[in-house]
Specification:
- The structure is a single chain.
- By secondary structure, the protein is α+β, with helices and mostly antiparallel strands.
- The protein has 3 domains: about 1-80 and about 270-295, Rossmann fold, CATH 3.40.50.20; about 85-110 and about 185-250, D-amino Acid Aminotransferase, Chain A, domain 1; about 110-180, Dna Ligase, domain 1 (2-Layer Sandwich), CATH 3.30.1490.20.
- About 40% of the residues lie in helices and about 20% in strands.
- It is built from 11 helices and 11 strands.
- Strands 4-7-5-6 form a 4-stranded antiparallel β-sheet. It has a 4-stranded antiparallel β-sheet with strand order 9-8-10-11, with helices on both faces. The protein has a 3-stranded parallel β-sheet with strand order 2-1-3, with helices on both faces.
- The radius of gyration is 20 Å and the shape is globular.
Length: about 300
């Protein structure tokens, strides 16, 4: 089968994308597939049309990769692709939107506030810091509203730390989120076709009941955001050992140090088997019809 691997792009996560793609390409080749390596650029659509792949494996990270952009193009071309669909990608990439959807679905997530650059520079949002402190307390985590990985994320232990943290976050996106800090272990739950594969960041050691609860919350988040195929849900455990969802990653990294393949390996799934299953899921879903205007 001919599989196009979409990689690189122009986001700040280009290098991670290239590393993920290289590993995926090796696995696809070992599985007997014909691999077409495509560095996402201005000629992407033309090359996809020329090559006519049966499946596109999306190994792009960050804006322009996991925000629905290549997914929309692949739907226009009628090419099945790996990972979640357009809507889920948009939801996962926009951290603020994702938080609203999680809260609406009754899924626990740390309290937050958000505002954009216009509110900050022209409407005096910084003057609401006293109210933000009263609502969220300190410490806080300040994040860009839509960015992959941990780019632009800053920890604000006190009010004095907030201005610098905001400047850092705004350098990556025109919308920022200030989130209540949860003091506890961080967990990453990897989901493959809705089947939870959990990788715990040491020193987290959970009892079976706690493990089931964490996987249940992660699965609910996966479904609430509309994910299909595979994704990773990041959580924190609070002081009461209750899971709080931070975000979901529509296209988690697939490098040799990434959590998703590590979790699969811990569950007895080799990287080659993981890639094979991801491709099979894309083929089974088939081309996704793009939205069309009425009439």
């Amino acid at each position: 089968m001919k599989v196009a691997v979409l990689k690189g792009g122009r986001s700040l996560e280009r290098q991670v994308s290239l590393r993920s793609a290289a590993r995926v390409e090796d696995a696809l080749t070992s599985l007997g597939h014909q691999v077409v390596s495509l560095d996402a650029g201005a000629d992407l659509v033309r090359r996809l049309k020329e090559e006519g792949p049966e499946v596109a494996f999306i190994a792009l990270h960050g804006p322009g990769g996991e925000d629905g952009t290549p997914q929309e193009l692949l739907e226009i071309l009628g090419i099945p692709y790996t990972g979640p669909g357009v809507t889920a990608c948009i939801r996962c990439m926009d951290k603020v939107l994702a938080k609203h959807l999680l809260r609406a679905a009754g899924i626990p997530t740390p309290d937050w506030v958000a505002f954009n650059a216009t509110a900050f520079r022209e409407l005096g949002a910084a003057d609401a810091l006293e109210e933000i402190e009263a609502r969220l307390g300190f410490p806080l985590v300040v994040k860009p509203g839509a960015q992959g990985s941990a780019l632009g994320v800053r920890f604000a232990a006190s009010r004095d730390d907030v201005p610098e943290a905001l400047v850092a976050a705004f350098s990556y996106d025109d919308r920022v989120m200030l989130e209540r800090h949860v003091a506890g272990p961080e967990l990453a739950v990897s989901l493959l076709d809705g089947d939870g594969r959990t990788e715990y960041v040491c020193p987290a050691e959970l009892a079976p009941a706690e493990t089931a609860a964490v996987q249940g919350v992660a699965t609910r988040a996966y479904e609430a955001l509309g994910c299909t195929g595979f994704a990773r849900v990041d959580l924190m455990l609070d002081a009461d050992a209750a899971a709080q969802v931070l975000e979901a990653n529509a296209i988690p990294g697939l490098t040799d140090t990434s959590l998703f393949p590590m979790a699969a390996n811990a569950a007895g799934i080799s990287f080659e088997d993981l890639v094979a299953r991801i491709v099979d899921l894309a083929r089974a879903r088939g081309p996704v019809a793009s939205a069309t205007l009425p009439g």
